[in-house]
Specification:
single chain, about 140 residues, mainly alpha, elongated
Length: about 140
């Protein structure tokens, strides 16, 4: 008769738990950064953000967060899907502008999110080409 084996619960290693925690953090940074960019752009629709403006620090911080999220959260092999998100948000912002009354509020939000996705896509392009052509000799 074969010995009876018991199913013992798998214990996560510290490295995989730490990686999951960082992944969780960068996921929420991505979401909150996108929402912040969208709301900020929706609130200041008719203004142009300049270097001396009070919003320039927030925009710079969102660009840094986007670059960090692009490096540490997204996979550079998934570049096409992230680029499609960027194009879809831009196209939605341009097409939703024609909706009666609500389009005036939604279009700047979508465009702000697209502005936030821009640094992420550019970072992924750089990481992709560095991995493919420089590190892969």
């Amino acid at each position: 008769m074969a010995p009876k084996t018991t199913n013992q619960p798998k214990v996560e290693s510290e490295a995989s738990a730490a990686a999951a925690n960082w992944n969780f953090l960068f996921k929420w940074l991505f979401i909150l950064g996108g929402l912040t960019a969208g709301v900020l752009n929706a609130l200041i629709v008719n203004e142009v953000i300049t270097v001396d403006d009070q919003y320039s620090y927030i925009v710079s911080a969102l660009m840094v967060v986007g670059i960090l999220v692009g490096i540490f959260y997204f996979d550079s092999d998934d570049l096409i899907n992230i680029g499609l998100r960027f194009m879809i948000f831009g196209a939605a912002a341009n097409s939703i502008n024609g909706l009666y009354k609500i389009g005036v509020y939604l279009a700047p939000f979508f465009m702000g999110f697209a502005y936030y996705l821009g640094p992420i896509v550019l970072t992924l392009v750089v990481v992709y080409f560095v991995k493919k052509y420089i590190l892969n000799k």
